[in-house]
Design the sequence.
């Protein structure tokens, strides 16, 4: 049984088909890259998977159980944790408290949450700034903090939307190192990214979307050399 | 644990300062022996409770309601009507007021759950006006604008004075423990970013309803105590201008802090007594103050005090380290 199964999901905004009959599934412990040109429906799909949008048709299953249409907070409790493309944090709360919110909301006791938050801050090299309000952090640090809060309680699946965009190389290295080590421990991921070198390096498998459809689902190297994918990225004339 | 320092220190400092402030208020009757001025301070404590309740909703949870005075009025009318029809005293009327206003707060909270910003403000504003009009027009039931006489609890001013001090103290202690618990984390998370809070597993519906209910219950308690103190309740308690005063108190004192609402209410109300002779000018002055504070001093008087304190000249440590 796959960890996450996306079955014939469609979503339209007015006349625009943002997701067009998309299907693929992810086994537990997989680290899958979700790629595609801008506007191909990647974020819309993540919004549906994390409960921020409902789909028009199709279904999503987590460990064989339908989760379509559940609210974000319910999905988070089922272990679907998500990082946003445009960073979302609690700007008037300390970095430490930002992590505590997730820990406590997901059912940890306050002392357990404190321990995990300290460990995460250390792993992500954020200990120094843990007392600062999230609103005072740099864009990269804020992203790292949001990234970290997905792992306060090991999620069933982590959905990361552009974690590396506009992030300093050092922070990017911290994040990808963290993803690698968690993946080695069996953590399941979907990573949306335009940063192809990182996708190639991190993700054994990739799903490519274009105009709402899944156009390739293979090992990352094969996907990137796929003619249809190249065409989608560079436009018809380049092929 | 040391790790919780940043937020908890902030909260502890605010709590400690608010206790000092209450201690000063408790000591005031030694100097302020005039019954009229003691009454003024009692009314300012009533406003302090409304301000604290509104701050829990607007400052800590980010829900900008325009109905704090309405819940005060509902609490006052609960005990007022109970005593009018059944002859009950404060022992029944006050707890009943807490339950009734809390219950109505819960219902309102459920209704406005999905509304944000101006939509939430406008809906609570219309709720406030509807409630006031219903009470003032249900002449057969509430005696309308004639108001209701409510039995007092004590003889003389001072017992009321200390009753308000004790209730304020209990409210601050309760809120302190609430805000430093996980509930406080969730409320502030909702205030800062509701979508982020939901995606991290915070039960938005539950905690927003909780904040609405608790805020309404505190306001209702304040209103009921005020009713017994004034021995009279009328629909004027729920006037939108009363809510305006509460908001100005919190904004001037410091929104989202434990000191702000308390200090703001005491200062603004006492100041308004001095401005009473100027008639409606006091409204103009407070409105201007709110605009100035909202524009230039977001943290209110408490924020100004904190930054003045932090700007104290640092110890001349530089030469010492240079010689090392």
Sequence:
């Amino acid at each position: 049984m796959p960890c996450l199964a996306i079955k014939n999901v469609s979503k339209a905004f007015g006349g625009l088909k943002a997701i067009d009959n998309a299907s693929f599934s992810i086994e537990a412990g997989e680290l899958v890259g979700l790629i595609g040109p801008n506007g191909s429906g990647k974020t819309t799909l993540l919004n549906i998977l994390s409960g921020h949008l409902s789909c028009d048709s199709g279904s999503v299953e987590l460990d064989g159980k339908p989760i379509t249409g559940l609210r974000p907070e319910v999905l988070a409790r089922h272990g679907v944790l998500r990082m946003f493309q445009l960073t979302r944090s609690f700007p008037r709360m300390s970095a430490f408290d930002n992590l505590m919110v997730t820990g406590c909301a997901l059912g940890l006791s306050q002392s357990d949450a404190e321990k995990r938050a300290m460990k995460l801050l250390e792993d992500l090299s954020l200990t120094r700034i843990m007392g600062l309000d999230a609103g005072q952090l740099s864009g990269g640090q804020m992203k790292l903090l949001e990234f970290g809060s997905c792992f306060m309680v090991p999620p069933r699946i982590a959905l990361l939307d552009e974690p590396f965009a506009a992030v300093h190389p050092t922070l990017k290295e911290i994040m990808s190192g963290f993803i690698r080590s968690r993946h080695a421990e069996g953590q399941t991921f979907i990573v949306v990214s335009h940063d192809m070198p990182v996708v190639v390096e991190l993700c054994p498998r990739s799903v490519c979307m274009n105009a709402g459809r899944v156009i390739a689902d293979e090992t990352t190297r094969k996907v990137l050399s796929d003619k249809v994918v190249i065409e989608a990225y560079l436009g018809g004339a380049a092929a | 644990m040391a790790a919780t320092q940043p937020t908890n220190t902030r909260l502890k400092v605010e709590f400690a300062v608010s206790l000092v402030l209450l201690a000063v208020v408790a000591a005031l009757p030694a100097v302020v022996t005039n019954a009229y001025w003691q009454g003024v301070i009692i009314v300012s404590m009533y406003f302090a409770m409304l301000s604290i309740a509104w701050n829990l909703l607007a400052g800590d949870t980010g829900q900008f309601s325009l109905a704090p005075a309405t819940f005060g009025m509902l609490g006052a009318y609960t005990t007022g009507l109970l005593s009018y029809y059944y002859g009950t005293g404060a022992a029944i009327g006050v707890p009943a007021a807490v339950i009734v206003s809390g219950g109505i707060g819960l219902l309102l909270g459920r209704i406005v759950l999905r509304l944000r910003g101006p939509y939430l403000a406008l809906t609570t504003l219309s709720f406030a006006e509807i409630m006031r009009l219903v009470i003032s027009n249900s002449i057969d039931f509430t005696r309308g604008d004639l108001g209701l006489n409510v039995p007092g609890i004590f003889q003389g001013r001072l017992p009321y004075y200390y009753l308000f001090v004790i209730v304020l103290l209990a409210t601050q202690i309760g809120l302190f423990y609430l805000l430093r618990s996980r509930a406080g984390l969730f409320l502030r998370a909702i205030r800062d970013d509701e979508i982020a809070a939901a995606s991290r597993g915070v039960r938005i519906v539950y905690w927003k309803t909780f904040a609405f209910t608790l805020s309404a219950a505190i306001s209702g308690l304040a209103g009921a105590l005020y009713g017994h103190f004034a021995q009279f309740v009328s629909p004027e308690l729920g006037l939108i201008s009363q809510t305006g005063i509460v908001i100005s108190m919190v904004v001037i004192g410091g929104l989202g802090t434990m000191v702000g609402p308390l200090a703001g209410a005491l200062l603004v109300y006492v100041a308004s007594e001095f401005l009473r002779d100027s008639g409606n000018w006091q409204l103009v002055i407070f409105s201007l103050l709110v605009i100035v504070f909202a524009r230039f001093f977001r943290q209110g008087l408490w924020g100004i005090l904190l930054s003045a304190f932090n700007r104290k000249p640092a110890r001349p440590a530089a030469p010492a380290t240079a010689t090392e």
User: Anything to note?
Assistant: The mean pLDDT of chain B is 90.
